[in-house]
Amino acid sequence: MLQVYEEFSEDQVKLLEHFVTNTTSSVFALQNLPEVIKGALFSRYSRSTLGLRSLLLKEFILNPDTSFSAIAGGVDVVESQDQLVAIQKAQNFYDRILDGYGDDSIGELGGAHLAIENISMLAAKVIEDSRIGGSPLEKSTRYVYFDQKVNGEYLFYKEPVLMTSAYRDLFLDTCNRLFDTYAKLIPPLTAIIEQGFPKEPGISKIAYGAALRAKVLDCLRGLLPASALTNMGMYGNGRFFEILIQKMHEHNLAEVQEIGKKSQQELGKIIPSFIRRADPTHKHYQMHAQFVGAMQDELREFAARHASFVEPSLRPGVRLIDFDIDSVARVAGALLFGSTSLGLAELQQYCKTLPDEELARILDAAASSRENRRHKSPRALEHAGMTFEIVADFGVYRDLHRHRILTQERQLLGCDLGYYIPAEIIGTEMEREYCDAMEMAKKAFHTMASEFPEEAQYVVPMAFNIRWYFHINLRSLQWLCELRSQASGHPTYRFIAQEMARQVSVALPAFERFFKFVDYNGYELGRLGAEIRQEQRLQSKS
Q: Distance between CA atoms of 512 and 519, rounded to whole angstroms?
């Protein structure tokens, strides 16, 4: 039985019960506490012999330096203006605690929810590049129509450099043409798909309608420019937000800098102690900005010097460009490690001497009992790494970019790698209108990019291909391929997921067993099954 070694008086229990879920068990949760107090409390906790509740009482609730009641409320709540003064007065105390009793990881003990609205899809990707410690959720191009206007104007970011340049009209005309084409093609494409895949008896109108809409919008999302406005909701810990804001301050695009400034202002009202080092006046920020600036300048110089000597590859698709031929033995040795008292290096070296049949038995022990894709494989699979280079449209990149446990990097958006044309419009009048809009955007991009290469990205439609790479371990790849190949996924990223699994299985056949739930089938109304199941779940709850 878990022992409790603390006893509290009746008055102390009354003080504590508003802030902890119980005062008698050795397992309890915090509640009704601001992030700065929780972070400071836990950072102090690691250096104290007291239990967390005793520490909360002694050094926070009853400590006049913390202005606890003003910040936390629930014990003698004061007026809002006095509360602001108290918070400011107490800030040095919390900063001192966070600095003195922990390292950067202390910033992970507090967090915040942040809404970022009406930003471009290009800026959203910059934000989502910060992948550890944050959980972003972005407005979907699959479930939301992007053809609405506000005050007679489509919703896209008016990039200030372009809007004050000689390219202003070109930028506006191109984005408006893309949105016009998007809006114009929705009704005829809906009619064609509905005619080709009519609703079957027994399928509800709601489920069919949702699947039909997803299919249409999946086809047409490629017309949306990178300037199209989206909304994001995200949760992150303090360390995540500090690094994110710092990156946004250092970014070349004015929009990203403005988002960083506003994010710091708003998060400063909630978790100021966690993000203070991201302030441009802080020495930590200034040193980092100097490092990043110098590094980028030098790398651009070297890239310009050497890039012309490398043969370019323009072929769209997926390429497995690097893997370790010994990774099968490395994974097998790691699988055995936890059940022995032997060293990992010795086990992995020994597994290199085993016949393929015996290695297969070891790998099967980790794979054969999996019954669905949500059964996570052992961490031993992380000993196999591989690198893929992918050339596919920006819409697909947005979908796959959300995977976090991997290393990924992309190049600037451009129009030199071709663009995606949905199969559903090929051979129809819609194809001509679609391609005309793409060619107009391509011409506009090249005109603007000669002077403003980064700002010109805002006019690039999502259908144009982009090049990026994934450096990923087998365990993460298994999750990605099995998830993104499911019937409800976009057909293009389903192909990429299928192809990554295929190429690894060809290069390292022993690993094919770990992709048993990759769906290699093709689907037309891919969302239909998921929409039917969703409606059934809702009906069962009503």
A: 13
